[in-house]
């Protein structure tokens, strides 16, 4: 199942794991496993990848980063297959992503000679990249009758959906706001009128999908196995400058 109607679909370069994710989701459809279980699975995969980075098992680290990306897609697929969308799953997914990203870059810093300040800047950079991509993607989904579990503006605590408790939604939303609030506000300040766009061209969404977490993990994995671990942090710092290019293109379009 897709987050978008067929007429609005685009080639998502960060979503390369979707075919395998669908296989995983379909295999779990008639079982007692829930999307939350799959989310826990990608957290475990991410933690194993961090361990492998710390001890220089770089091929294994790359494998588990890619597996994490695949499972990250599978939890949403399973939620749509079972018709059990939830804000609990949506916020738990995002919270897990940002915490894992932080420790991935911390592990890269620890095993290289890059200064901690630059590692922090790279982490901020990838979060801003992902926030910009998600901002445009969520606008597109909301304006084209796609999946609306993610909201354009995460200002107020949403009402719990069927099958989840309001207490869990309240707690996870509060954590989400604490971790993502500054990134959301920064991107909104840089492009406050994007939500007025009726749609974005497919080629534009494909181009900006290089900011998606899956593509970021793919780049990281490739640099690890090719022997460029020392350059990962500096790469993502400069990669962040493309934010201004994409915002400029969006405004031109």
From TrEMBL:
MF term (GO), any: phosphotransferase activity, for other substituted phosphate groups
Provide the leader sequence positions.
none
- Classify the source by domain of life: Bacteria
Q: Does the keyword Transferase apply?
A: yes
Q: Which UniProt keywords are given for this protein, alphabetically ordered? A: Membrane, Transferase, Transmembrane, Transmembrane helix
Give GO BP annotations, semicolon-separated.
phospholipid biosynthetic process
List residues traversing the bilayer: 36-59, 91-110, 116-136, 203-225, 231-249
Q: Which organism is it from?
A: Lutibacter flavus
Name listed for the protein in its UniProt record: CDP-alcohol phosphatidyltransferase
One Pfam family of this chain = CDP-OH_P_transf
Q: Which GO terms describe its cellular component?
A: membrane
- Coiled-coil residue windows: none
The family this protein is said to belong to: Belongs to the CDP-alcohol phosphatidyltransferase class-I family.
